[in-house]
Amino acid sequence: MKHRKLGRTDIEVSEICLGSMTWGTQNSEAEGHAQIDYALDHGVNFIDTAELYPSNPMSAGTVGRTEEIIGSWIKTSGRRGDIVLASKVAGEGHEYLQDGIGISPHKIRVSIEGSLARLQTDCIDLYQLHWPNRGSYHFRQNWRYDPSKQDTQQTLAHIHETLECLGQLVTDGKIRCIGLSNETCWGTAQFLRIAAENDFPRVVSLQNEYSLLYRSHDLDLAELSHHEQVGLLPYSPLSGGLLTGKYQDGARPDGSRLTINPGLFGRVHDGIWPVLDAYLTVARKHDLDPAQMAIAFCNQRPFVTSSIIGATSLEQLANDIASSELELGAEVLEDIDAVHRRYPVPF
Ligand SMILES: NC(=O)c1ccc[n+]([C@@H]2O[C@H](COP(=O)([O-])OP(=O)(O)OC[C@H]3O[C@@H](n4cnc5c(N)ncnc54)[C@H](OP(=O)(O)O)[C@@H]3O)[C@@H](O)[C@H]2O)c1
């Protein structure tokens, strides 16, 4: 397992990050703990969660449960020092989290106390803003994205007060560093500029969706990652499971995500199946497991710090973590490139 530094910090994280958003719905507390133990035994030291989790589905009754499951693992294992722990403050829109208010210094101060208590720790290593108040083009908003109504001065003032608040949390020892999620290139650049001008904490990572099917980080964001050392933490590297091939030919395995979340947040439409067929053909041609090929592709992108995987069983987890041993060669990458040119924006 390779390790890379988070941004310009000295914090070393494994190139595979263990996602947790199924713990508390699809997975029990014991299963969550078993996943952490397995991952740590196989070189993973990085865990991603959020105050909002679990998802699939999200609900008032379960919100916060995933952090509690990680917290009980920390308490019983005594291994807090063995993990780099990432969590997130939610953006606007979920009424069961502080009445759905957007991110503000007040919201952050309330949220961080809740997360620390549930996680049974004094400090979160990487604290991320889950999605921007002003919205973003992720989550299939790309087709109708219109930033022209955003208020520039208000947005910049919001970034300033958010960074100031996060800086205080760093000083207080409650967080070590900060990251963004579902952010844009302009937004990230503003966070970096305002931080530099005011001696506020510097963003170390950007957690956005990225996979063979969603290549939003390949252009301007790739350049930003390179020059600013803000690495991508790609989430949904299997596109919610689609890239495993498990749903081809109408298959719907019992309990799988597509049976719980029809449409997978807008990823599934009639046109998606031939795209998946094309990537599955590449995997077959090179005798590769399709999930491992998809995750290894993310791991090998030059702007990626750590790919955030998710699994609902130890078998899936073992398979997905083993992608870290796979190096995709030039021929595989050429075949992937050919499919990408045929289907540049599958959803
Ligand atoms: N910042 C954000 O807005 C955001 C959004 C989404 C996710 N995330 C983070 O990223 C993590 C991963 O996201 P994700 O779960 O969407 O990732 P993903 O890798 O695209 O999908 C994972 C799902 O695919 C299925 N799967 C995984 N490995 C498999 C295998 N080898 N064979 C067959 N099926 C397999 C499992 O679902 P089933 O068994 O149910 O089919 C699993 O839960 C989350 O836990 C969370 O930490 C962040």
Overview of this structure, please?
With 347 residues, the chain is α/β, with parallel strands linked by helices. It has eleven helices and ten strands. It has helices spanning 29-41, 65-77, 105-119, 152-171, 185-198, 220-228, 257-260, 272-285, 290-300, 314-321, 330-342; strands at 3-5, 12-14, 16-19, 46-48, 84-89, 124-129, 175-181, 203-207, 231-232, 307-309. The strands form two sheets. The protein has an eight-stranded parallel beta sheet. Strands 1-2 form a two-stranded antiparallel ribbon. NADP nicotinamide-adenine-dinucleotide phosphate binds next to β10 and α10.
What is the topological layout?
Elements: E1 3-5, E2 12-14, E3 16-19, H1 29-41, E4 46-48, H2 65-77, E5 84-89, H3 105-119, E6 124-129, H4 152-171, E7 175-181, H5 185-198, E8 203-207, H6 220-228, E9 231-232, H7 257-260, H8 272-285, H9 290-300, E10 307-309, H10 314-321, H11 330-342
Parallel strand pairs: 3-4, 3-10, 4-5, 5-6, 6-7, 7-8, 8-9
Antiparallel strand pairs: 1-2
This protein binds NADP nicotinamide-adenine-dinucleotide phosphate (NAP).
Radius of gyration: 19 Å
Secondary-structure class: alpha/beta
Q: Indicate the mean pLDDT.
A: 97
**Major sheet details:** 8 strands, parallel
The kinds of small molecule bound in this structure are:
NADP nicotinamide-adenine-dinucleotide phosphate
User: What's the total helix number?
Assistant: 11
| Sheet with most strands: strand arrangement | 9-8-7-6-5-4-3-10
Q: What oligomeric assembly is this protein in?
A: single chain
How helical, in percent, are the residues?
A: 25-40%
How would you describe the shape? globular
Strand composition percent? 5-15%
The helix/strand order is EEEHEHEHEHEHEHEHHHEHH
List how many beta strands DSSP finds.
Answer: 10
End-to-end gap: 31 Å
Low-confidence stretches: none
